[in-house]
Amino acid sequence: MVYNKQEKTLTEEEKQKIIETLLHKEGCWVDWGKACQQLQENGMTEEEIFEKTGFQSSYQNLVMVASKVYDSLVRAEAEEVLLEYYRGPRSDILYELRILNQQERLAAARFIYEKKLDVDAAKEVAKAIKEFSRLSQPPAGFSFHPGDAVAYQYWKMARQKKEVGEKARLIAEGLKFAHTETARQKIETLLTELNVATPKTPSPPLLPVYRLESDEELPCILPVVGRFPLKADALNNIPHLKPKGPFGVVLVENNTAVVTIPSWQAILKAEKPVVIFCQGKDLPGGVKNETEELLVVVDLAITQWDINRYFLVEGEEEKLQLKWLSSPTQKIYGQVVVIVKPRKILDEDNLIQPWQMDD
What we know:
Layout: H1 12-23, H2 29-41, H3 46-53, H4 57-75, H5 80-86, H6 91-96, H7 102-115, H8 119-133, H9 146-160, H10 164-177, H11 181-188, E1 219-227, E2 258-262, H12 265-269, E3 273-279, E4 293-299, E5 310-314, E6 320-324, E7 332-340
Parallel strand pairs: 1-3
Antiparallel strand pairs: 1-2, 3-4, 4-7, 5-6, 5-7
């Protein structure tokens, strides 16, 4: 039985049915992860799910994340034999691939399947591929294949070791993972160093050069007006922060509070964007989490009413508020551009803490 994300809220009867499937462990771990996700999205806490099903919070988190990785393999058209292998169950291995994109996950999953690697080795493969993905081209002798990515890490570590026993161990590990013949030859050249008494002149390492590929990788620096409740005079004397040069250098005056967010297109199009901090309860209509800290970007240059937009207006007691106007009945100070929730604090090495991941 496979559970898909529902747009509607589950009834108590539907929740109970899902709880019973988890209690009796119907289906496989992929189904369990989707079921836990569905229950959490419909208001159940990890503790409540544990009490009713016996699924520990850490295991809920693991199967939820791993099931999303599994779904990405399905979308990448992975072979059925590969999917069956990971349903085996090997949720802990797929959990380690969460840091990779869809195509990288598929390549890593195939390699791990071929080598029959355990979860520790899978974690090593994932980290090696992630580091490799930041390079514009593979180092000489190595390819972008997952095996070569891991072999390269061992090659780098072996070069830095002086103790013969440890150096030999790292070389052996590198040869075990190397996929291409050129990678094997590159690692085998280190074997000659084991028999040389005097150290060779070290060669310089690769420069850590990276290129920014998109505008969103450059942060947008915006001035902070303050935090609700605010009065209109808080909008006076706001500094104009203009980025300069290819890296967007911004000159900030003393005592000016600023915040950085991604350079989304909507932000770049704003003429006079500023930031106001608020809580969920300050939004029109409210949100599920009324105490959650939110960041609101307002364009003070847009004061013309539009029925399809939200605005910063002056409300009761001359205090500013965010509001949708069915008609231009209040003074408009700016138009809401975007509302940003804080990112989740993640600890990749600790399953005890919840780990959230977007599809």
